[in-house]
Amino acid sequence: MEAARRAGLTVTGEQQILGALSGTIAEDRIPVLEAVDGVESVDREQIVRLPPPPDAPIQ
Q1: pLDDT, tens only, 3-56
Q2: Cα gap 22→53, rounded to integer Å
Q3: Is the pTM of this model over 0.90?
Q4: In the chain, which end has fewer C-beta atoms inside a 10 angstrom radius, N or C?
């Protein structure tokens, strides 16, 4: 985890059982993070928004 921090990752969550971290990093630092020994993959957050059904009241 320390190597990921040195690469620029600001850790916001750690899932020790899964061996996963979540956090934020500048876009231009992602290649540096991907090159850290032990980093298997880097996934970007994806936000999906669905509109309400046309006949449903908006809550």
Answers
A1: 999 999 999 999 999 999 999 999 999 999 999 999 999 999 888 888 878 876
A2: 33
A3: no
A4: C
Q: How far apart are CA 18 and CA 2, in angstroms?
A: 17
The residues pairing with 11 across neighbouring beta strands, listed in sequence order, are 23
- 3-state SS, the chain, equals CHHHHHCCCEEEEEECCCCEEEEECCHHHHHHHHCCCCCCCCCCCCCCCCCCCCCCCCC
Question: What confidence tens digit (pLDDT) does each residue in 2-18 have?
Answer: 999 999 999 999 999 99
